[in-house]
Every structure is written in C-alpha cells, then in structure tokens.
Write a structure and sequence with these properties.
Blueprint (H helix, E strand, L loop, with lengths): L9 H15 L3 E2 L5 E3 H5 L12 E3 L5 E4 L4 H7 L8 E11 L8 E12 L3 H18 L3 E7 H9 L5 H12 L3 H10 L4 H9 L4 E2 L1 H8 L6 H17 L6 E4 L12 E7 L7 E5 L1 H6 L5 E8 L3 H7 L5 E6 L6 H13 L4 E4 L8 E8 L2 E7 L2
Helix pairs in contact: 1-4, 4-10, 5-10, 6-7, 7-8, 9-10
Length: about 375
C-alpha cells in the first residue's frame, strides 16, 4: 500500500505501513496500559516533551496518570542485562499539552525501541528504520543526526555548573552562536573553548564535510569517539539514504541521552514528525543494566501535511436530488472513487467542507458546477 498516493486517512495509512516496516525487521508489537503511576513521570519530567500530566487517584489511593509518553513505560518494564535484545514497536495514544496550545490532546504516537546491547549494527538499523519511516510519509524528507558525546565532551573541558551547562546547551540548540560565545566569556572560559563551543552552532551539513570540520575542535577522547561512530554509521548507510544530514546543534537532555540523537522532518509539516536517540542514561536512572535506542513518530502532525497538500477536505462533493436513482448515484460514486478521489454524496451543498470539484448528478449524468483546483 502506497500512502504517498493515497487520498484516504493519512494517519491510519501511515500507521499501517510503518507497522509493516517494523515487523519486517523483527520488531514485536508492545501493548501497555493507558495508566502509569504518577511518580514515574514526576521523577523524569525533564524527559517528557511537556511537563503537564493528567492525574487521578484510584480506589486504592494511588496517584495515577494518563500516559504522556510511551518510552518511559517501556524502559521501566524492560528486562535488565538480557543477552537477547528486546525489539519492540508500539502504536499508542498519549495525553499531552502541546506547546502554546493550553489544552490537553489525545495524540497517536507510533515508535520503536531497541533495548539490550546496542552495537554499531543496532544503531544503524534504528537510524535506517527512522529514515524509512520518513520516506514512507513523504518523498521529500530530512533526518537530522547528532551525537551528544561531542557536545558533552566539549563541556567536560569547561568545569561548568549544571545551570551554566543548561544555558549554553539552550543557546546551541537555538543556533545562537553570538549569545553562546557571550555566555562562555561571562562564565570565564578561555577564548579557545569559547570559540569551539560557539562553532558547534554552525557545525551542520553533509556527514563527510561536517565530520571534517568537527575534527578541528576535538579536545578529548569522548569527542573523538563520537566522530568515529558517526563516520562508521555513515559508511554503512551512505549508499542507502539521501535524506541524512549531520547537525551538532541538535541536542537533548544530557541526564537521559548519551549518544546518537536524531530528528525527522517531512515536506509540508513545519514541526518535527520523528524524534529519537540513544538513552542509556534513562535506563540507568530506572535501575536497568541495559542500553537502549529508539524513536517516536508523531502521526498527528500528518494533519498539517494534508492541509499543506491542497487544503481540501474532499476531491468531489456530489449533489443529488429526489429524482436521482440510487443505482445511478451508486455507480457514479464507484466510478469517481475508483480513480482514487475522495467523494461525498449528499443532497445539499456544504458550507463546512472544502472540495476541489462540485458535481451534480442529473438526468444527463454528471454535471460540473464548480472547480476549485
């Protein structure tokens, strides 16, 4: 099934196709409860996309929460130090308050997690599946890759407080090189370190060119190792995907993420539709002796894509009256839908729905009343 050409429900078709991709690589569907103890989210609020959580008390007096995130629940219930990796995918509703909305929404989230010993192949497989997910959603897509070890290694040289690191990371994430350098000077860092940290804001582009630029700022083994891993990943994936770019200004919480991180974008959606990374630190915080990497696809963002593709609810609004024969009306609808068009047949014109064509079934057949495409 090709969701690129489909005019049906994009979210449902995306879920169907992505599930097929993940199962093809041996990932098993994981089903969890809609509820989780609130303490899990309270202790890991900075891991969540938004801190607001819907809570309630059950009849036993436990404070529970509607899931705002799936990864935390999977990580909490994962096996520890198992020789066999857990390869899981999920298709779950989560309850969040998107930024600037002010209201909770039930959001469909699809994703996968690889838990166990994460070697080079595992990281390449997960990145590959992230890229395949984006390509299944749109012919025009970008998967932006980074590695937390590079920035973390650079900050290790600075002897900064936790708050100072957060401020610098925030500036790097917004690609504000001037403010980053100003902050570094205000924290008393040497000029060489100020310039290196500021340069991270503009370290982005193709893998090969960006890795070479990043070599100029290596200060320790952690930074060197991160570049070596990125080079090895590129050697594996470069012949398979054209959507990969490297951007060291893409960062995440150092207390949870320790390696690869990545974000996915598709044409027509002005927001991130996929995000993921290596989260060994989260596993340690949850008392698990395992490594982990995964990502989530925000299928609700596909609504924006549908609007961008033309802004029409329907391809055809088909009007009919009391004289229309049901048999002829049914045949007309079958003919139009057979061509892949979205068709709605009703007696009156709609002021609520937008459409490319307004047709009427008369005695002489189909009549075009209006064309908007």
């Amino acid at each position: 099934m090709n969701i690129k050409s489909s005019e049906l429900c994009r979210e449902e078709r995306a879920i169907f196709e992505l599930r097929g991709i993940y199962e093809q690589y041996g990932y098993e569907k994981y089903k969890i409860s809609k509820f989780e103890e609130y303490a899990l989210y309270l202790e890991n609020k900075s891991f969540l996309p938004s801190p607001e959580v819907i809570t309630f008390t059950d009849k036993n007096g436990r404070l529970l929460a509607l899931k705002p995130d799936v990864t935390l629940s999977i990580a909490k219930n994962a096996r520890s130090a198992s020789e066999e990796p857990e390869k899981l995918y999920y298709n779950e509703n989560v309850f969040r308050m998107p930024r600037a909305s002010g209201e909770f929404r039930e959001i469909m989230q699809l994703g996968l997690e690889y838990i166990g010993e994460v070697d080079l192949y595992a990281e390449c497989e997960v990145l590959s599946l992230a890229a395949k997910s984006l390509e299944a959603l749109s012919e025009t897509c970008v998967l932006v890759v980074s590695h937390m070890g590079f920035v973390a290694g650079l900050l290790d040289e600075c002897r900064l407080t936790g708050l100072q690191k957060e401020k610098i990371l925030s500036c790097i994430g917004s690609k504000n090189s001037h403010e980053t350098e100003r902050l570094c000077h205000s924290f008393g860092l040497e000029q060489e370190l100020c310039e290196a940290i500021s340069a991270v804001c503009s370290l982005h582009g193709s893998f090969e060119e960006t890795i070479e630029k990043a070599r100029l700022y290596i200060k320790n083994e952690k930074m060197e190792d991160s570049l070596l891993l990125l080079r090895d990943i590129w050697q594996v994936l470069k012949g398979e995907f054209n959507c990969l770019i490297l951007d060291f200004s893409v960062i995440n919480d150092l207390s949870y993420y320790n390696g690869l991180i990545f974000q996915g974008f598709i044409d027509g959606v002005p927001a991130t539709v996929l995000s993921g990374g290596r989260y060994d630190e989260l596993m340690r915080r949850l008392g698990k002796d395992s490594q982990a990497i995964g990502f989530a696809v925000y299928t609700d963002q596909l609504e924006n894509m549908e609007r961008q593709r033309g802004g029409y609810d329907l391809d055809v609004l088909l009007l009919y009256d009391d004289k229309a024969e049901a048999e002829k009306l049914s045949a007309a609808v079958r003919m139009l839908t057979a061509n892949g068009q979205r068709v709605r047949a009703q007696r009156v014109k709609s002021d609520r729905l937008s459409y490319k064509q307004l047709l009427r079934l008369g005695e002489g057949g189909l009549e075009i009343l209006e064309t908007n495409a």
